[in-house]
Amino acid sequence: MKQPEPDFWVLEYLTITKDPRTGLVVAIGGTEQTADILQQAGGFLSAAGPRGDYHRLPHNLPVEQQRLKATTASHALLAAGHSVHLDPALNMLATPDGEREAALRYLAHLAERVGAAETSSEVAEILTEIAAPVHGLLPLTREVVVRAWIAASDLQGATPGAEPEPIARLADTAGALSDAACVVLRARNHAARPRSCLQCSCAG
Q: What pLDDT score does 1 carry?
């Protein structure tokens, strides 16, 4: 005798994902109880869709805020005993490809921050992250290039100053990165000045 298929409450399953067309983080499915958790734990908003109500995060949230809110909401739902699928790209606790993915998210986050900047001081903060002397992106990249130049020269058995031209040009590239960091820092200093100071053309 064939076993009957069990009844699943499919509509109570909830999926949190990022809509590829709009870039919005949406939550589809669930119940009134899951709606309350989405709103309270994750800051989701109720919205009317063509196939019924759904939830979404506010527009124009930075990527890291989207991930934080989606992860927080999903864990609150799981803790309350609900079934939820969280898109791995939104899961702050999942890091596919580890540090590389984190670095790409960091760069995307900087681009979003500078795109949304409303004051020159906000721009200055981002320029600082790019060119800060010790931990800035450009100085750290320069360090990688210098080490690559040394390693490539050693592996090819080239004496200093006698490397093949493509490898020798890594040294020039390292110098160009240092120059670029100086340019960015000067721009940072200018952007960080109060507007009144710029208008009066004070020294410094």
A: 58
The segments of the chain whose pLDDT lies below 50 read 10-11, 196-204
The structure tokens listed for 65 are 């805020």
Going across the sheet that includes 52-56, the strands are 45-49, 52-56, 25-29, 14-18, 84-86
| Rounded Cα gap, residues 169 and 100, in angstroms | 26
Beta bridge partners of 14: 29, 84
Model confidence over 18-29: pLDDT tens digits? 988 888 999 988
Buried b (16+ CB within 10 A) or exposed e, 187-202: ebeebeeeeeeeeeee
> In the chain, where do the E strands start and end?
14-18, 25-29, 45-49, 52-56, 84-86
Residue 199 CB partners (closer than 8 Å, separation 6+): none
Alpha carbon distances (Å) from 76 to 33, 69, 158: 11, 11, 59
pLDDT of residue 56: 94
